[in-house]
Design a protein that fits this description.
single chain; alpha/beta; eight-stranded mixed sheet
């Protein structure tokens, strides 16, 4: 562990990016607990009421289901969602009237969708004599409920303005073929295994690894992403071979980084020596109040392979520093590195040869924690799963949405062409990678490009970081809503961004869902409910544990498996931070019609570039 890592406990990082003033407000540490208390009261009251004899006669399925369904549900998902909607809206960031309208919008939209689904079910039952299973209805209601929450928050929250996304179509034949084949194989495996009577399934259920999920459903996503991962690794192996070391500029936004900036620069100097080409380091001193500038100047003067200078950027905000660095860049290629990132010796050497392919526009790698602090072991598994597995796998079908700004390489022309890094919102790194991808370029995540990136060592610092990170998906989706609602059929816009929004909702509801499942199981109001304690535990231990182990093995880091208990606990904490992050979004009384806004005929402010 470096000396810088030892000093992390002294950091209480806060910047203008922690809560962009137009889009986010402060959230007390007591706001989410109070919301959870209200949610618990609402949920317990409704569970009791729905199971009284009089109400159960109207709703025999013991949930707000308005037509006959076959079978039983595992959880009263509609009661859960309505309780969550009301509790969340009650503690959202807005006035009393604003919160009331938000709750009403959520509840009525969800009930209208459920009524439509139940009407279709009743119609099918009348015509065909068969109805949907209650289990299927619960899954459909849950997914719809997640989507309602995400998109209503997007509509009613104060969000970045929509921009025109320039899209240059390129052939997606290979990506579509790969996706179709892997989907078919994953479905076939899921169906095959689901029909087998395996002893291991019984064992996994007893270990709470499956809960109430069938083995076929459980296997579908791991098999799908496993295939995509192998295809992506094949692409990495068969890609660039020739040495390519043109001059590069490295821009490093730095705000009060005196504890680590010397290590950061020295790591880049070692990487420059290994690279063999010219490396120009630009330390963008962004309104620091400590001795970041002095340490950076002294360290740059002592570099043996790299050259560099410090540029003062008095206007606070990471994007301001990045754009000043973009303006100062005089090379064809640009590397963005965070001030708390220690690049690996071979990072430049591995990343740059990808750009011999003119179709490549962005290259990144996998961050690893320095080790030794509270969250580092859990963070190791997190990055192996997210960056070392899922992000790598999505590269096989050109579906990478964003590459984190801790270490990422661009062609300098592309960020300039797009107007630089967006200011005043969260997620500027994902925004620029996403838009470069829509210009027809490929984004590469090479799992062999590894660098050490700081992990907060205190609860307060971790909370600040994750609230900033988790809010960014809404900022990006609002700003880039052309992709979601526009006519261009892109994987990122029509599948991945909506999925990320729905997944954000699922994560925000994870802790309330655990509480709700515990209420249903513990209070046992419904004697016919099949919910088991294994199902409740499986929400946090089943699939996440198996994917973490798989990712650690595929990335050649088996020691990461030892951190599995900490990782599973951290995932729950991460979900709680997501909930707090959503509570920080400022809510308006008037909902924006996102789809209608997209139909405005905007003229681009620059000529369309031919790829």
């Amino acid at each position: 562990m470096t000396e810088a890592a030892d000093k992390r406990e002294q950091i209480n990082f806060v910047s203008v990016d922690s809560a962009p003033k137009r889009f986010a407000g402060p959230v007390s540490v007591w706001q989410a607990p109070k919301m959870m208390a209200l949610f618990t009261v609402l949920a317990a009251s409704q569970l009791w009421l729905i199971n009284t004899d009089a109400v159960a006669a109207v709703f025999p399925n013991r949930d707000y289901v308005f037509s006959v369904h076959a079978g039983r549900h595992a959880i009263a998902i509609r009661i859960f969602l309505l309780s969550f909607y009301v509790a969340f809206a009650a503690f959202s960031s807005g006035g009393t009237w604003v919160r009331a309208l938000f709750a009403l919008d959520l509840v009525l939209t969800f009930l209208f969708g459920c009524a439509a689904f139940d009407l279709a079910n009743a119609f099918a039952h009348h015509l065909l004599g068969n109805s949907f299973s209650l289990h299927f209805s619960a899954i459909a209601s849950g997914l719809f409920g997640f989507a309602v929450y995400s998109f209503k928050l997007l509509e009613r929250g104060f969000m970045p303005a929509r921009i025109r996304i320039e899209h240059i179509p390129v052939s997606q034949l290979r990506a579509c073929a790969r996706l179709a084949v892997t989907l078919a194989i994953a479905a076939a495996v899921a169906i095959w295994v689901g029909g087998m009577d395996l002893h291991i399934v019984t064992v996994m259920r007893s270990w709470t690894l499956l809960g109430g999920i069938g083995p076929g459903v459980f296997l579908f996503l791991p098999v799908l992403f496993g295939q995509l991962y192998l295809l992506a690794i094949y692409d990495v192996i068969t890609a660039k071979k020739s040495r390519f070391n043109p001059p590069v500029s490295v821009i490093v936004p730095a705000h009060n980084e005196s504890y680590i900036i010397r290590d950061t620069i020295q790591a880049m100097d070692r990487a420059a020596a290994h690279y063999g080409g010219e490396v120009h380091i630009l330390i963008m001193n962004n309104n620091s109040t400590d001795d970041t500038e002095e340490i950076a100047r002294e360290t740059l003067a002592n570099c043996s392979a790299a050259k560099g200078r410090v540029i003062n950027v008095p206007k606070p905000g990471k994007s301001n520093a990045l754009n000043a660095g973009l303006d100062a860049c005089e090379t064809e290629f640009l590397v963005r590195v965070d001030a708390d990132t220690l690049v690996g010796e071979d990072n430049f050497s591995r990343a740059m040869p990808y750009f011999t392919d003119p179709a490549v526009g962005v290259v990144g790698g996998v961050p690893v924690p320095p080790g030794g602090a509270l969250f580092d072991r859990a963070r190791l598994l997190e990055v192996l799963v997210k960056h070392g597995f899922y992000s790598v796998a999505m590269g096989a079908v050109n579906g990478v949405v964003g590459i984190p700004g801790m270490f990422v390489v661009y062609r300098t022309h592309d960020p300039r062409y797009l107007g630089g890094f967006v200011e005043g919102m969260n997620g500027e790194d994902t925004d620029i990678s996403l838009r470069i991808g829509e210009l027809g370029f490929h984004s590469v995540v090479d799992p062999k490009i590894r660098y050490i990136s700081e992990v907060p060592s205190s609860y307060g610092h971790m909370r600040e970081q994750r609230m900033r990170w988790f809010r960014s998906i809404y900022h990006i989706s609002s700003r880039c809503r052309d992709l979601i609602y526009g006519p261009n059929m892109t994987l990122r816009g029509k599948v991945i961004l909506p999925y990320m929004l729905v997944n954000s909702a699922r994560r925000a509801m994870l802790v309330p869902l655990i509480v709700f499942g515990s209420l249903e199981w513990g209070l046992a109001f419904n004697p016919d409910s099949p919910i088991l304690w294994q199902s409740i535990i499986a929400v946090t231990t089943g699939a996440p544990a198996i994917m973490a182990v798989l990712s650690a093995l595929l990335n050649g880091v088996p020691r990461g498996i030892l951190a599995l208990p900490e990782y599973l606990i951290f995932r729950v904490l991460r979900a709680y931070f997501t909930l707090e992050s959503m509570l920080s979004i400022l809510v308006d009384a008037t909902a924006e019609d996102l789809e209608r806004a997209i139909r405005l005929d905007l003229v681009p402010d620059r000529p369309i570039r031919v790829a």
